[in-house]
Amino acid sequence: MGVDGNYKWVGKRTVRPDGTDKVTGRALFSADSSMPGMLIGKILRSPHAHAKIKSIDTSKAEKLAGVKSVVIGKDFPNLPNKTISIGILAANFSEMSDKLMARKKVLYDGHPVAAVAATTSAIADKALSLIKVEYQVLPHVIDVDEAMKPKAPLLHKKMITVGVDPAPTKASNVASRCEFGFGDLEAGFAAADVIIERTFKTKPAHQGYLEPHGAVVSVAEDGQVTIWCSSQGQFMVRSYCARLMQIDEAQIRVIPAEIGGGFGGKTVIYLEPVAMALSGRAGKPVKMTMTREEVMRATGPTSGTSIDVKLGATKDGKLTAGEAELRYQAGCYPGSPVGPGAMTAFAPYNLENVKTVGFDVVVNRPQAAAYRAPGAPMSEFAVESVIDEMAQKLGMDPIALRELNAAKEGTTAPYGPKFGPIGNEQCLEAAKNHPHYSAPLGPNQGRGVASGFWFNVGGESVASVNINTDGTAVVLSGNPDIGGSRASMAAMAAEVLGIDYDKVRPIVADTSSIGYNDLTGGSRTTFASGMAVCNAATDAVDQMRTRAAKVWDISPDAVEWSEGHARPAGPNAGDFEPMSLADIARTSAKMGGPITGRAAINAQGAAPGFGTHIVDVEVDPETGHVTVLRYTAVQDVGRAIHPSYVEGQIQGGVAQGVGWALNEEYVYGDDGCLQNTGFLDYRMPVASDLPMIDTVIIEVPNEAHPFGVRGVGEVPIIPPLGAVANAVSNAIGVRMTDLPLSPPKILAAIKNGS
Amino acid sequence: MHDFAYHRPQSLEDAANFLRTAEDPLLMAGGQTMIPTLKQRLAAPSDVIDLAEVPGLVMIDVKKAQVSVGAMLTHASVASSPEVQAALPALAGLAGNIGDMHVRNRGTLGGSIANNDPAADYPAALIGLGATVHTSKRQIAADDFFTALFETALAGDEIVTSVDFPVPELAAYMKFDHPASRYAVVGVFIAKFGTDVRAAVTGAGPCVYREAQMEEALTRDFSPSALADMTISPDGMNTDLYAGPEYRANLVKIMATRAVEAALKGGG
Amino acid sequence: MSKHHVTSTVNGEPVEFLCEPQETLLDILRDQLDLTGSKEGCSSGDCGACSVTIDGRLVCACLVLGAEAEGRKIETIENMAEGDTLHPLQQKFLEEAALQCGFCTPGFLVAAKSLLDRNDNPTETEVRYWLAGNLCRCTGYDKIVKSVMDVAAEMRGE
Amino acid sequence: MAQIVLTNDLGRQFTGGETTLDMDVTDVRDLIRKLDQKFPGIAEVLQDGSMAVAIDGNLHQDAWLEDIGPTSEVYFLPAIRGG
Q1: At the topology level of CATH, where does A19-27+458-603 sit?
Q2: In CATH, what number does A33-138+211-260+266-298 get?
């Protein structure tokens, strides 16, 4: 082993262990499970963006034949108004509970107000129509800049902005202010020959996972709860349900279904506690699945934003100062990703003077949920646009400008610490040397470049490696496989154990079958759970070395493990025939019992990821329509455990970013209600919208991981927004600052020339 | 969906009888618009009458001067018919660009025109070619068929059976499609019959219409340049989540110009 | 409303079921016939996760009424492999990692097979347009399109 | 002595604006304990999970036992969540 080793399984394009089930329709996602006697649960949602609930009358619904339980907000525990961290997440459970089921006010179109469980879907629908809710409609606010105005309708009458000194005396929609940076901005801008200042806007975009949220929940008479659901973390579901419903974690068993995409949107829960309440009352299991309309109206998209950027440079291209103010929509309660947005905005650059200020602003929309590199795509879009413009103003090549100012090992990141070994410069160089970058462009075509940065995270992970007597291994880990992680876990275990990949069976275990794991998110799984799997496999190897030593009557230290065999080493080298894993496993009963390696860690040392993207577009000057002609994405991933799934993560991130840049947006009516609640109006890219997406994998290993993994999933959604906007701007000769770049918007820009 | 009764009549007469006797009947052709509408509870018919088994509605008859298409023929069948491709490529091309493959395999000519969605493609072909609609009762000229937003000249118990499309000298359809739904934000069908030119516009207004000034200009000179100085008024044009009247007015001219270019190149 | 007694052929087997007029073919497949390989992603015919074929034509099962299945032949993802042999498309999707979460995968496979059954020499553009009714949020389509092109080439003996 | 850098927010709340400190500490737990002696109340914020720490450029979350060297640079920053 070792980060520079030659590997048999790591880095190979193996077939994923769960693949056959997924190409034959056998894999069970959240809506695919049923239980005997199961009821169907449904939610009644607010038709108003902001309203006081004057009364709820559920009596008629309760009397309808086939209705087994009805719940409203007061049926859920009231919880302390305090933010608590759980693993890599933080939550205010009072607010979370209110988001699950409104109490006194509804705060967005789609906010749940009541739920029913009935014997059939049709009866549940009928029951919802019999619930009478009296509302007093209040003025609402959606846009972040509008929400910050002094006379904006207030969502929470007592909310005082946190992070401002002295604390404001008046309530506002600004939940908090954060600030990062160092140096002397004034001096930095004074030293600049060119200063560019621009304001950018982005619209809320949905994660767009294909599988709507779903859960089957059974609450037994003794209070034991079993939950089958798809989420990014079965332990997250357990922690949240236990706290929201005020029961012990040990009473809840969450069995992870296959997950049909998440991208951050399934790091929160919507249905499970409601189904728990319904099931507990009815005494029967309850199944709940969202419609696509419910997903669009009431699950977290990411924030819409408004961002000011100011950047200074000398005439030879040295950046002298960077400043940004970021305003992010949080949704109905605080919690936008403006913090990471502010931290990442200038991260690809070496700046001596930098300051970013972020505002977390509540508006009448569903709570923003994490979406791939939460907060970063928007802020880096704004900065990458200004970098591109700066290159134009200075007459410099945009990659050359980036290279001249690139963050590298030892550079102080805008959020404080110094970077360790990072692949930012390597990505820029690979992009510059890629044939794409020098390919000629035709009329009405433009090329855009942008970089992206994400921290990546580690966190708590547990893994077990059970050695079977036939020489195979079962690997248990606790993270849902959202994009091929079973294949990576199996490859790493096979590598450490020295047995064939096909002899390793990876299992995603439920919450009662393995210790606590943080959820799948933040690009942590291959890094942190992978590290746990490696450690657990090493633990099993150590046990097998010890057993071989006992058979040979030598010291365990004199036994080495290679290619799946215990071998006498040192003074005993060559004294005994090597024993294979299968040999040792076969006699495990006689030698002390089953061999089980285990590891429980809080993985530290996640290393940052950088990427640089190049895109060519053609703009129809008569209609404003954009065609994406060619796309190349370069990214430092540390080590590609499974190159195909690494490429897939990058390609998928690019497609999402292109959709965000060109088409995807939430459109609200004057009444504050979402108007595009389905895929007919909310346009995610389809196959005919995209070209092939070329990927270039850079490997600057992360020394903290046994195989050098950094994490892959977040970075690739960051550069596309800036790259596409830069390409369009370059094609039409007008700087585009307002996403998405819809044809009407582009045509107007062409006609107005600004 | 609200409750409804489902019927599958075996003859046109039976289907018409259901229309006459049911409380609030709705005809179903391909169902690609209707079923989503029912799911959203935007319609609550008492009876759904499925035309799938009614004989005679699935036909193509291509003659030298006329292409006849049965009401229940799917878009995919029209698009892939070698006869239609040869005789009226603009029509085959139009059908082949409706929605996506799944929609084209179920959606039908009759369903499309009876629904008269303001952004549907087929109405532009009917108006652009001066087609004749055959129904269970009579023949209706296309110009008289589409009356208003989602409204047609069909009587309550009348069923579209087929459409006759005259074969023009030159024709083409160009649309700027909505990125998600693939409906026409604006679509323009241009056809030239000897000295007579027809220009039909869909997507721009509440109902498909003929653009008279375009027809006059193209009658004088059937070339893209004939439209160069034309101004299209945005008055009365549609606004939706995607685009407003000014953008649509611009598209009418652009799509018409491109349709003329395509028609001169042989259609599509 | 009274239920309809429907007789059809699903994956080569004769099948009878009772259905309400409002039930879609997707409801019947998933809830009555336990064929949960066809997925419900949108229920409005926009995502293609419920792609099946009826009498050989690719459709969204969520936009077909169960009662319409009378006398028809339905094929779903569950019948794509022959015994224990995967269809070449299924095999290629595995080898090329043309799936990530796997939710849209059954629909893509049914749609891609429907294309290759008609055209064993599609251009990349033809593949992309044929699959435009199927949404995938994970892959960016790259590996899906490549897999379909590769299988077509293999079917042609290249 | 290790160099300790607090966020501007922490400085505002607890230290009267001071964000850079030199301290003799052995690990994160020791650092938090000593900071709390100097700035009472700061430990609660540093330990509630909302803050992460970077030691010589390496990011750590919830890591009381991580060693801090005699010349280490230690930055407190908001904990990073993910998507």
Answers
A1: Aldehyde Oxidoreductase; domain 4 (3.30.365)
A2: 3.90.1170.50
What value does the mean pLDDT take over residues A571-598? 94
**Strand, coil or helix: B109:** helix
The packing angle between helices C142-155 and C105-118, to 10°, is: 40
Nearest to A46 by CA among A120, A105, A97, A3: A105
Q: Is residue B49 part of a domain?
A: yes
Query: Which residue among B6, B35, B74 places its CB closest to the CB of C63?
Result: B35
Q: How is chain D split into domains, by residue range?
A: 2-7+18-69
Residue B36 belongs to domain with CATH number: 3.30.43.10
Whether C46 sits inside 8 A of B180 (CB atoms) is yes
User: Tell me, what's the pLDDT at D47?
Assistant: 83
Segment A49-81, tens digit of pLDDT: 999 999 999 999 999 999 999 999 999 999 999
- Residues of chain D with Cβ-Cβ distance to A408 below 8 Å are none
Interface partners of chain A (CB pairs < 8 Å, 3 or more) are B, C, D
Q: What is the pLDDT of residues A13-25, one digit of tens each?
A: 999 999 999 999 9
- In the predicted model, what is the mean pLDDT of residues A292-321? 97
* Amino acid at position A298, single letter: A
Q: Is A223 left (phi over 0), alpha (psi -120 to 50) or beta?
A: left
Helix (H, G, I), strand (E, B) or coil at A594: coil
Residue spans of the domains in chain A: they are 19-27+458-603, 33-138+211-260+266-298, 305-456+607-752
Residues of chain D with pLDDT under 50: none
Mean pLDDT of the A166-183 span: 95
Per-residue model confidence as pLDDT tens digits over A186-244: 999 999 999 999 999 999 999 999 999 999 999 999 999 999 999 999 999 999 999 99
State how far Cα B260 lies from the chain centre.
19
ipTM of predicted complex: 0.96
Residue B194: which domain range?
170-264
Q: How far is B246 from chain A (nearest CA, A)?
A: 9
DSSP string, A75-95: GSPP--S-EEEETTEEEEHHH
